[in-house]
Write a structure and sequence with these properties.
The protein is α/β, with parallel strands linked by helices. It contains 9 helices and 7 strands, in the order βαβαβαβαβααβαααβ. It has one domain: 3-Layer(aba) Sandwich (Rossmann fold). The longest helix has 29 residues. The protein binds nicotinamide-adenine-dinucleotide.
Length: 262
């Protein structure tokens, strides 16, 4: 049977429930995505890098708020290919073969002007933000191809679309994700799989918390909708791209930035 997107009802038999992987969901945008997609009715395997207590607290809280939610936390550093494969295996063991989607969210930044940027900061960002999604997609493909249906959503950034001073490493990785997205879209379309990217603008999370107040104020002035984005704004777009309504959209980049770059 060809899997179809779930209807929003939680299926109490996990092996029949379509499931989704969300990387880096112990906090921020990833957590909002995992929470939203659990509410949409998918089983969720989410990964985190190191904060086990945070990840388990999220599982407990969500299961309390949404009785019947099928949610599994798995420790995996996405910059390690073997860990990515293990995450998919763990999801398969828990939820079965009906993998419906992958949300490549995990990411880091190590900002600084390129002239002074440490090699380590270039490599870490490329490994996590670009190789990580590539490893994850490769690990998921056997299941998605066999199912002849599915969705991949990669979280890029407006920095990847337009560049950003102080983010050469991050912008390069996030631009690379766009090439990855379009190539995977072309390679998998004949099997009913779509692959799209979302380019968030300024979203209020730990990642943007570190910016000085003056920089935040300057960015706010450039946002047409005059507010910073919230993780749920990105989760809503992810939910749409995973839904049946997005079946005819592939290889695209959806900017979710409140009009930051118009
Ligand atoms: P965050 O720092 O709050 O959360 C990042 C998540 O990624 C965490 O759960 C962390 O554990 C996980 N992670 C980091 N490195 C990992 C690794 N090697 N392996 C596994 N997990 C790892 O950041 P956020 O703001 O929620 O960002 C989420 C995604 O959105 C990132 O890809 C980021 O680049 C992108 N993004 C964020 C913004 C923004 O304004 N916050 C804007 C554009 C794009």
């Amino acid at each position: 049977m060809t899997p179809t997107a779930p209807t929003g009802k939680i299926d109490q038999t996990p092996d029949l429930q379509p499931w989704v992987i969300v990387t880096g969901a112990s906090r921020g945008i990833g957590q909002a995505c995992a929470s939203r997609l659990a509410r949409d009715g998918y089983g969720i395997l989410f990964t985190y890098r190191s904060r086990s207590a945070e990840a388990q607290a999220f599982v407990t809280d969500l299961k309390q708020a949404l009785p019947g939610a099928a949610l599994l936390a798995f420790q995996a550093d996405v910059s390690q290919e073997a860990a990515c494969r293990s995450a998919v295996e763990a999801g398969k063991a828990c939820f079965g073969d009906r993998l419906w989607g992958l949300v490549n969210n995990a990411g880091i930044n190590r900002d600084g002007l390129l002239l002074r940027m440490k090699t380590e900061d270039m490599e870490d960002v490329i490994k996590t933000d670009l190789l990580g999604p590539m490893y994850m997609i490769k690990a998921c493909l056997p299941l998605l191809l066999r199912n002849r249906a599915g969705r991949v959503v990669n979280i890029s950034s407006v920095s990847g679309l337009y560049g950003n001073a102080g983010q050469a490493n991050y912008a390069a990785a996030k631009a690379g994700i766009l090439g990855l997205t379009r190539s995977v879209a072309k390679e998998t379309a004949s099997r009913g799989i779509t692959c799209n990217a979302i380019a968030p603008g300024f979203i209020q999370t730990d990642m943007t918390q570190a910016l000085p107040e003056k920089s935040r104020e300057a960015i706010l002035q450039q946002i047409a909708l005059k507010r910073f984005g919230q993780p749920d704004d990105i989760a809503a777009a992810v939910s749409f791209l995973l839904s049946a309504d997005a079946a005819y959209i592939t290889g695209q980049v959806l900017e979710v930035s409140g009009g930051l770059t118009m």
